[in-house]
Amino acid sequence: MDGFPILSVMLAVPALAAVACLFLSPSAARVTALAATLVDLALGILLWTGFDVGGAQWQFVEAGPRLGFFAWSLGIDGFALLLIMLSVFLMPICIGASWRAIEKRVPEYMAAFLLTEVLMIGTFAAQDLFLFYLFFEAGLIPMYLIIGIWGGVNRIYASYKFFLYTLLGSLLMLVAMLYMVQTTGSSYIPDLQAHDFPAHVQTWLWLAFFASFAVKMPMWPVHTWLPDAHVQAPTAGSVILAGVLLKLGGYGFLRFSLPMFPEASAQLTWLIFALSAIAVIYTSLVALVQADMKKLIAYSSVAHMAIVTIGLFAFNRQGIEGAMIMMLSHGLVSGALFLCVGVIYDRLHTREIARYGGLSINMPKYAVFFLFFTMASIGLPGTSGFVAEFLSLMGTYQVSTWTALLCTTGIILGAAYMLYLYARVAYGEIKSDEVRAMPDLSSRELWLLAPIAAVVLWMGVYPESFMAPMRNDVALLLQRIDRAAPASDSNPTPGNPAAAAASQREHGGEHGAAAAGHETTPGEAH
Amino acid sequence: MILAIVFLPLLAAAIAGLGNKALGVVPAKVVTTAALFASCALSWPIFIGFLNGSETAHVTPVLKWIVSGDMDAAWALRVDALTAVMLVVITSVSALVHLYSWGYMSEDPDQPRFFAYLSLFTFAMLMLVTADSLVQMFFGWEGVGLASYLLIGFWFRKPSAQAAAIKAFVVNRVGDLGFMLGIFGTFLVFGTVSIPAILAAAPNMAGSTIGFLWFRADTLTVLCLLLFVGAMGKSAQLGLHTWLPDAMEGPTPVSALIHAATMVTAGVFMVCRLSPMFELSPVALDVVRFVGAATCLFAATCGLVQTDIKRVIAYSTCSQLGYMFFAAGVGAYGAAMFHLFTHAFFKALLFLGAGSVIHAMHHEQDMRYYGALRREIPLTFWAMMMGTLAITGVGLPGLAGLPNMGFAGFHSKDAIIEAGWASGNPGVWFVGVLVALLTSFYSWRLMFLTFWGQPRWVNSEHIQHAAHDEHGHDHHESAHDAHHPDEAHGNPAQAEDGGHAPSTHEAGQQQLKVGTAGYHPHESPMPMLVPLAILSVGAVAAGFVFHGFFIEPEAGTRFWKGALAFREHLMHAMHEVPVPIKLSATIAMLLGLFTAWYAYIRQPQLPGIVAQQFRVLYRFLLHKWYFDELYHLLFVRPAFAIGRIFWHRGDEQTIDRFGPNGTAWLVQLGSRGAARLQSGYLYSYAFVMLIGLTVAVTWAIAG
Fold first, then answer.
1. Among A304, B54, B679, B703, whose Cα sits 20 to 30 Å from the Cα of B637?
2. What would the DSSP string read from start to end of B459-484?
3. Whole-angstrom Cα distance, residue B488 to residue B482?
4. How confident is the model at residue B399 (pLDDT cuts 50, 70, 90)?
């Protein structure tokens, strides 16, 4: 394996396939796209098995030639590895989901998807600041096209909103990057992560990056592009949008904001916490009243992403690991939920919840999968969602009990809107003949959902596989940011059992009998 | 061995659930039931081992789970005396309920799914009680919540079942919020989630304070109270109880297993498991005691006037759980666990008996339409009788040197009431005695309305259906109920619809026609009667046989061995309470019995008169103190209303208006002059991009 430029190959395969697709017939384009994404998945598995857990921070490093502004330097750490795995895992599923649903301009569609894959992997693997920026921003273009060309009725508005939001943030980030490269003289990300910017500069740089990442996340109040984009996007577009593109913001915070500007991050934690707590409650309540399935899941995504941001800015291991697992988990679960919507959209061509009902009767297999992913979204222990939510909130509690309390209400609201959705879709009597005529999952659809379910369960029961690769990286990150870690608002004082026992005794009257009966603490009294 | 006990039900659930229709009804039933009987057969030796002292506490590691720094929650199965008690309760009742369901569910087309859910529930419950860490306990906690949700909503075509299922899950989640925060806080303070490690470290934290939200308070009090919120949710304590009566939408075997014998006792189990920690916080114990006593009283008052047989038993469960909590709150954890143990048998018996009655009465659940069933279904009658004798606590108080002799509830409930007095809480003692009276009244009321008096079957639509329809029995329960969607929910509603006074329930009772409508109730089949018989034995003997192990002063060293905090002192004091106190519960029981007899046998028109006399109070109780209405007004409606406001006013009219739409408007305005080329959007973006880049580069170079 040594010397084999596996990351470059993972970029080249879909890139070449994308070009090839443009010259092929629709059916050949489908097969080519599927083959290319499967090859990338296989390469991804090689990458994972080849990754030395506990070894060097940056592995599979490729220092290529400098291409003017950009240096072709690639390399991954545990965080990048996991997110690349997420991307290559979801991509064949997206192609599969588009197999029948997309009928117009298939070659171009497949090319756009393959291009997205290239750009996603590139974003996670880039070690050069500008190379990262290139991939990061260019990732919007195929997505913009996917929504704008293959989207629903209102696709132009949605794609425009999507583009406008993300672009404005990106420009500020570019400015910050230019400044950083100019002052440090390096565009190599590991160098920049070790560079200490003065505190006041950090704040400005942090805010510039924040403008971009907050939109990508998306955080409240710059989230409104997401529901529209999801509603208009074709199913596979939604899957990749929720599954991978939403992870770019979190990855950005993890890769740039925290290690490069630790003081500013600590100083502005309040902002992240406040926006996230608002997001959890606000978007959960909005999700509750949605009549459109995709919109509902889109709003739930915003709430879940808020759990990522609070975890990241908790400045402790549980928070960061929880946030990372949440990114993976949400990528899988909301991706799967969008697939579930896609399955019934393909049959009835509506996303309106009220049109459905009673699907458990005629689509029992579908009902099982939908229920499973609903439960994973709610964070039922045993699924990936729980590990994510639990660790992230646990990390947050150590910093701010208020934020933890407000964000934990998400487990109640989340249960409410998801179960309400599920009941309306899957329970009750079948109301119309067209619903009654809907066939259960085809074997193609089964093969799209089953692998995701398996991984969600795996991540919920034995998350060690996913947490081990990043353990070292979290430690390094914590080493870097620990100096700025915000104080806890819990701050327990050391106990004083003797005094406590004495005061309890003096209390007399009410607790007298209880105190006298204390068999567990007789030692302290004498 | 413990691995087999816990994982056999999971395996069976997977086989039955995934095999489902392909596997067929009989294999699914056989696999799940066999797995449960195997688990049960393996559990009893463990329990007996703890009784005779040959077993010791041990932990069986299974697999790594969540490891994040110090946060190390592994999959592991802990077995000690406390777990052993729960093991036999869970596996025995579950095995019997599986068997019972062969008969009860025999007409249901969806049986594999039902049995899979039952077994899945059992697995989750076993994971809960064998947990060695708080996180695994939470896994089991949520797992039983899932199973409960699925089983309440088993007849998912019924809107009322869907609503009840969602309600159960969401209300439980409110409790789970507390539980989760409690785990977070515990980890923050102790740096671990392992229960033994926490309990060992807890005494050193006595007297410490911790910040929580805006205030600082005693650390252990904060932690215990947060965890207790979880217990309140799962065990349906006052405030978070509203889901339990609605949970009766589920099939009756489910009510017996989940909503009486096992899941709802998880909160009591949790408090007992963490009792060494609760012992260190007098404030937390005060709260546990108060909530327990309040629930105990509240639920008993609601139980007095309900007419749905299952709802009466549901409120009774809620009330008995209150007993268990106030036992824990006065420090008598052994007594709490003892009541949990005996209650599991007699309450499961009562529910399964009620199921048998419902089965016989063609799915009629309203007791007003029962009557005179004693001779029709004698075996069910005797089983219910044993259950009633047990729950009301019939027995001979051991005076003058004689040992206590009585049915199961007599031993456990009287112990709790005595502990209330002995711990110096006369208020709690008084509530205990009062509720004993109420318990006796509503339990006998149920018996008298169901089994004595004249048959009033002719008033029931279910019965009329059955009588007119030769093939009545082929009707599937859910399909049948679907004809009367209001019925399960709507008894109070019917009372309101009736409008004028006489049709208010009990008032209307004497006007109900007497008659059988030509219907002949059938005794239930063997698979249903055998569990009733076995549980009857438990209801009769569980108290007498086991009280020495649970609550006698020497039980702490002989049986519990540190599995829970045991106040030997208090157990001694219980034996020395004055004779009137000792007799109080029995006297209350007799009073309740007499009143019920007088009101429902001797003077059957009396309840109607009383109900009319105290109309306001009656309606207050009938509407369960208006909790549902209040919560609907306070939480459900505002949540939807605020959601709509956020969506329209927030997202659409504020953020979008001033955000992207506003920008677009500005861009178009700005580019209108320059862009004579085209008015397409794409050019606007290019324009914005260009300006942005120019600004950026200029600034970068200048900087």
1. A304
2. G-HHHHHHHH-TTGGGS-HHHHHHH-
3. 10
4. low
Report the residue of chain B nearest A419, measured CA to CA.
B166
Residue with tokens 């007992």: B272
The amino acid present at A512, given as its one-letter code, is G
Sign of torsion, CA B363 B364 B367 B371?
negative
> CB-CB: which of A394, A510, A520 is closest to B279?
A520
Question: If you search the block for the tokens 């997110």, which residue do you land on?
Answer: A83
Q: Give the residue extent of every domain in chain B.
A: 281-502+539-615
Which DSSP state fits B242?
A: T
> Which residues of chain A make contact with B566, given a CB cutoff of 8 A?
519
Among A170, A157, A167, A135, CA closest to B688: A167
Q: Cα angle vertex B429, ends B424, B433, to 5°?
A: 165
The per-residue DSSP string of B490-503 comes to -HHHHHHHH-SGGG
Contacts of B422 in chain A (CB under 8 A): 513
Q: Which two tokens mark A15?
A: 């890139």
For residues A35 and A41, what is the distance between their CA atoms, to the nearest angstrom?
Answer: 10
- For tokens 């085209």, name the residue: B678
C-alpha angle with apex A16: A14 to A20, nearest 5 degrees? 110
The two structure tokens encoding residue A497: 């059992």
Interchain pair A495, B207: CB under 8 A: yes
Give the other-Cβ count within 10 Å of B473's Cβ.
11
Both tokens of B654, joined, read 């504020």
**B162/A427 CB distance under 8 A:** yes
B177/A290 CB distance under 8 A: no
What CA–CA distance (Å, rounded) separates B256 from B266?
A: 15
Is A175 within 8 Å of B162 when comparing Cβ atoms?
no
CA B615 to chain centroid, in Å, comes to 30
CA distance linking residue B270 with residue B259, whole number of Å = 17
The model's pTM: 0.90
Phi, psi of B569, deg, nearest 5: -50, -50
**Residue B17 C-alpha, separation from nearest chain A C-alpha, in angstroms:** 10
Asked if the Cβ–Cβ distance from A381 to B142 is below 8 Å, we say yes
Query: What are the tens digits of pLDDT across the range A156-193?
Result: 777 777 777 777 778 888 888 888 888 888 888 888 88
Beta bridge pairs of residue B60 = B77
Whole-angstrom distance, CA of residue A168 vs CA of residue A146: 20
State the amino acid at position A84 in one-letter form.
I
pLDDT per position as a tens digit, B350-391: 999 999 999 988 888 888 888 888 888 999 999 999 999 999
Chains A & B: contacts with CB separation below 8 Å: 268
Residues of chain A with C-beta less than 8 angstroms from the C-beta of B647 = 286, 289-290
Q: What percent of chain B has pLDDT over 70?
A: 87
Tell which residue, A410, A372, A386, A463, has the closest CA to residue B139.
A386
Which is nearest to B241 in space by CA: B595, B501, B627?
B627
Q: From chain A, pick out residues whose CB is under 8 angstroms from the CB of B208.
A: 492-496
pLDDT tens per residue, range A247-269: 999 999 999 999 999 999 998 99
A420, B65: Cβ pair inside 8 Å? Answer: no
Find out whether A283 and A218 touch, Cβ atoms under 8 Å: no
* Residue contact B696–A398, C-beta within 8 A: no
Task: Give me B289's structure tokens.
Answer: 């005691």
Instruction: Give the span between the Cα atoms of A172 and A168, in whole angstroms.
Output: 7
CB contact under 8 A, A416 and B166: yes
CA-to-CA distance for B332 and B234, rounded, in angstroms?
Answer: 21
- ipTM value, please give it: 0.91
Q: Which residues of B touch A222 (CB under 8 A)?
A: 655, 659
Measured at the CA of B24, the angle between CA B19 and CA B30, to 5 degrees, comes to: 90
Q: Quick one: tokens of B81?
A: 């005396």
**Which one has a higher pLDDT value, A373 or B509?**
A373
